[in-house]
DNA sequence: CCCTTTCCATAACCTGGCGGCATGGATGTG
DNA sequence: CACATCCATGCCGCCAGGTTATGGAAAGGG
């Protein structure tokens, strides 16, 4: 008996939401499509999985049995997928490196060059991650190493080598009154609206709002973005200000956006991270070494 | 990332066969269809799974990684499916009973009637199994109990209650010289061609050929069938003879086929079986009790 | 040396399935 | 009584997958 895992994911979503309508918008499909997916799964199994009512979709007994076993199954499949992809990149001698836009900087080309020198035949594949993923794909097993910023959620489950520390500046609309100043104190920004990362990034979002360095005062959110472009636009359009690493002033310079040093807020730290499973992986270790030397050696 | 399990089964088949052509005929699809399925899976994963050559399809390293993990995954899914179906039948108060055509007999209606009396609200669903499955779906978890014949392969993994013993007779073309006799000895049949069950039924096939009661002499196979209809036709058409339980003479009477008692061959035994997991299942126990009483009580 | 066989890939065609939109029916709610 | 909320259904357009027919490459046999 064959199924598409999409049907199973849909089933799980409906089971969790208890509603076709809500599950449909969570899955970005129309509600009729979900209706048919659920029905199809039921026909396929020959089992009624839900009892329909005006109040929503309630699991039947066999539905509960299925809902208990399907999520681990899907997790297993996802793991299998990652493993196969990992094997493929190893076989092709490709090192997959994820990076946050803000964590790669001037030294990146040098790192790659040095790594390529040490590992001839190997190729580095750089993958820029969305801000909604502070581990740049490392936590999901999509990459072998990641250039990212500390701290990030789930940091304990990964190996981390800190590379450098960088003061946090503020990016603000160039027309903003505070932009006239050469330097600001963080306290002056407490009541400004901020452009923030999406809520599901948790500690990452809080870190760039410096939520715990505001003496307990609430944060005003002016806009939510998860890509550099949107982030710059939101600031330029005056929706709010945002903390950013000093290097952003060089990499994300843009008319309408001004960067100023901020005192009274802890600096940001750039690090390279890898999975504990790769502790014995000489290629990953080489890459990490290259990162370390790029910030210590040449200086 | 979503996949249809059909793609995974196809992948496993190709990996095992090492050839698209052979895998295609095993899966009952055309070879171009399989070509596209494999290609689709590779595109989906973004990974080359096979290296093609005139000599066939050889797994790549990531292909081997996948081939290692997918079969357990599919087995897990099949198990989940069985579990859900089992839960459904329990919730609907349906007892699923598999039976071999030759193992159900005159007492079956009485068994069902008695069970229904003891378990009002419950319904018995009788499912006839193909001869290729000597456990009548019990080993696969498709049924809760099974009426079958002993011995069968994998018998040790199931609970069995023997119900009755029945002599084995022989079914032969009515025009066959030996059909003129009232009774035969098995030894007289040693050189006759036999109509046999498919090879993949293993011990089951051997049992009905009485392969180990021939004093080491080889068996001549006249035809292979896995359904009663084909079996009767094969005998009537003179392709061979076959051993059968005495009751077959009543249930499978047919012009052109004669049944005669055979001496010198051990009798067949009918039993009811269930899964060890259902040892504590009162409903299954009731059904087994009904079976036992049907053959002991009334007599 | 050529012919045949055995692989896999490709092209052309056709059907069925799936998704989206619009709408309907049932049922609580202000 | 109108409205909001949910799920089901009808219709339409499109893509995906299957089949048949065919091609090309390579190995084995006469």
From TrEMBL, chains A, B:
<dbReference type="InterPro" id="IPR036390">
    <property type="entry name" value="WH_DNA-bd_sf"/>
</dbReference>
<dbReference type="InterPro" id="IPR005119">
    <property type="entry name" value="LysR_subst-bd"/>
</dbReference>
<dbReference type="Pfam" id="PF03466">
    <property type="entry name" value="LysR_substrate"/>
</dbReference>
<dbReference type="Pfam" id="PF00126">
    <property type="entry name" value="HTH_1"/>
</dbReference>
<dbReference type="InterPro" id="IPR000847">
    <property type="entry name" value="LysR_HTH_N"/>
</dbReference>
<dbReference type="InterPro" id="IPR036388">
    <property type="entry name" value="WH-like_DNA-bd_sf"/>
</dbReference>
<keyword id="KW-0805">Transcription regulation</keyword>
<keyword id="KW-0238">DNA-binding</keyword>
<keyword id="KW-0804">Transcription</keyword>
<dbReference type="GO" id="GO:0032993">
    <property type="term" value="C:protein-DNA complex"/>
</dbReference>
<protein>
    <submittedName>
        <fullName>LysR family transcriptional regulator</fullName>
    </submittedName>
</protein>
<feature type="domain" description="HTH lysR-type">
    <location>
        <begin position="3"/>
        <end position="60"/>
    </location>
</feature>
<dbReference type="GO" id="GO:0003700">
    <property type="term" value="F:DNA-binding transcription factor activity"/>
</dbReference>
<comment type="similarity">
    <text>Belongs to the LysR transcriptional regulatory family.</text>
</comment>
<dbReference type="GO" id="GO:0003677">
    <property type="term" value="F:DNA binding"/>
</dbReference>
